[in-house]
Amino acid sequence: MVGKRKLAILLCTVLVGGILGGCGNGGADSNKGSNASAQVKNIGILQLVQHDALDAANKGFVDGLKEKGFEDGKNIKIEQQNAQGDQGNAQTIAKQFADSKKDLIFAIATPAVQAAYNSTKDIPIVFTAVTDPVKAEVAKDWKSSGTNVTGTSDKVPVDKQIELLKKLIPNAKTVGVIYNTSETNSVIQVDELKAAAEKAGLKVKEVGVTNVNEINQNLSNALGEMDVLYTPTDNTVASGYSLVGKLCLDKKVPIIGAEEAIVSKGGLASIGIDYYKLGKEAGAKAADVLNGKKPSEVEITTLSDMAFTINTDTAKKLNVTIPKEIEDKAKKVTGGAE
């Protein structure tokens, strides 16, 4: 009897231990799942408006993150939002991202990063397609922002673009510039254009707009007063590139652009940056932040390599001769000249 009693006690002990052990393991598995869930970082992408350059920057950012080991649907969750060119929408989206406590906000274009910065001083913000983050008042310095912001700038040397303009249109006396007067990044570029044009002996004809709907009338009225049109990296104008290209071609006014997208819409030439590469570099910076760096520890940069793009159809239509040294270096595109 004693032996049977001891055996029964032993079996009960084993059974209870197994149950407790199972509960313990279940808890461990549950905690493991919880930890895995906690490791997924939530990223909000705020794009100001949809157009080729910003779309390319957006794609580059996602690819840049993936290249550094952060992939949507695996260890990060990306929420894409587009403000449709409306600053009020941008502010609303930024506030939603801040209220939902995203781990990082990616802002594409100056008004987008301003909206994000106005909404949070704690959540890390990475930007791209911003001309001057210091003048936009989201950073105190390029090397160390001193804020919760870092990113990549699309600032390009205007003097190089004036140099290209002079080589392609040597008889030009007046350069027009169309831009959104309410976009900080565009005002900065126009000021730089004025300084560079003065040194080159060119007059500047400004064409200001506040939305895409004003492009047709404002530009049409001014085309007779310019020999060539310069388009800066302006989001409003970029949204209307097809119209800008058509208006200028109809009046035989060549366009020199600060970025490539205008060239495929009938512009003559561009010397600018690759927005996909710019976004990809921003993605690498975001990866550094997700890995523990503070945004203020990640230097704000721009791309050093510039690319020539020439529309050969437009050149023929405008009877513009492309110098060999430019033609040899340039990427050739066609179309947009009908």
TrEMBL record:
Which sequence ranges form a coiled-coil region, renumbered to this chain? none
Q: Name one Pfam family in it.
A: ABC_sub_bind
- Which InterPro entries does the entry mention? ABC_transpt-TYRBP-like, Peripla_BP_I
List the CDD domains: PBP1_ABC_unchar_transporter
Record protein name field = ABC-type uncharacterized transport system, periplasmic component
Q: Specify the species.
A: Clostridium saccharoperbutylacetonicum N1-4(HMT)
Organism classification: Bacteria, Bacillati, Bacillota, Clostridia, Eubacteriales
